[in-house]
Amino acid sequence: MAKHFHVNTPLLESIGMSKRVGTTVYLKMENSQPSGSFKIRGIGHLCQQLATQSKGVVCSSGGNAGMAAAYVARKMGLPATIVVPSSTPQLVVQRLKDQGATVKSVGKVWDDANAEALRLTETEGLTYVPPFDDPLLWQGHATMITEVAASLGPGVKPGAVLVSVGGGGLLCGVVQGLKDVGWTDVPIIAMETVGADCLNAAVKAGRVVTLDDITSEAKCLGAKTVCKKAFECTQCSELSIISELVTDLQALQAVETFLDEERVLVELACGASLAAVYSGLIRRLQDEGRLPTVLGPLLVIVCGGSSIDMKQLANLKHKLQT
Ligand code: PLV
């Protein structure tokens, strides 16, 4: 990759989380990317490959892929149209506009917005930027694992990696990254919220399935169908991918604990991963023999997200606790 748009993010040790899990926990702080999430890695790479001659990009998004596409397009001097579902909060719509993007709100969930983005690709001749289903995205996301390997130094390898799953692009990127650095034996814990659980539903069904609806408040995990590649990774004997769920309330409580302990505000989509630590899920997986009792360092991908501020946090609290 030539010039890129993402930054090399810090890898921080979390004392609070390490105490809870009983092993060192490292946080890959993707929240500190210029667009607020890891999405910029893949989308920056994809746009460099596909959009240099473009008359503009169009991206369907729950919010964060759109933030990345808008940021990258602005840096490339291209117009960006971001199509979001009506569930995307106003604060994200405003942040997208502040990045210079044109925002269209179409349909109830991401899948509806995506149909409109694909239509615009055809009718307006724009370059389509998918939020999670493209090998170029996974290749870009994989750089986060290469960075982790460089930060940890030779001879140190994670005991497990914790990621959130929406449409599965982050998961595919992490898998790619683990392959790139020769860590395919490191188990991945793939977290979703109940009601945005397309990977978990696919794993249970033994095939890719489409959810009837997205009922979780973690809208950025809200793809009704996981990408084929992510499902295939769960079926691959070379990899160990553990698909687990938390409730929205657990994800919210994790967001709050993370804010208190690490002084960083992330959205619910990221809270799903953090909840695996705070709710005791990692300990339970160890007790069940699904993770080793003596676990090497736990790597948490802090995927970040812009769909949060103090007002949104209060709204979510009100919604989920009453
Ligand atoms: N969000 C996508 C898909 O939404 C989007 O359009 O922004 N963590 C955060 C903060 C995210 O925004 C997302 C994806 C994920 C995790 C999950 O990544 P994925 O979709 O690659 O599995 C519908």
Can you put this structure into words, describing what you see?
- This protein has helices at 15-21, 39-50, 64-76, 90-98, 110-124, 135-141, 143-152, 169-180, 198-205, 228-235, 248-262, 268-278, 281-287, 310-321, and strands spanning 11-14, 25-29, 57-60, 80-84, 102-105, 127-129, 160-164, 188-193, 241-246, 298-302.
- With 322 residues, it is an alpha/beta fold.
- β3, α3 and β4 (80-84) form a beta-alpha-beta unit.
- It is globular.
- The protein binds ligand PLV.
- The site of ligand PLV has 28 residues, from α3, α8 and α12.
- Helix fraction bin: 40-55%
- Low-pLDDT stretches: none
For the record, give the distance between the C-alpha atoms at the N and C termini, rounded to a whole number: 48 Å
Pairing-aware structural class of the strands and helices?
alpha/beta
Question: Please, how many helices?
Answer: 14
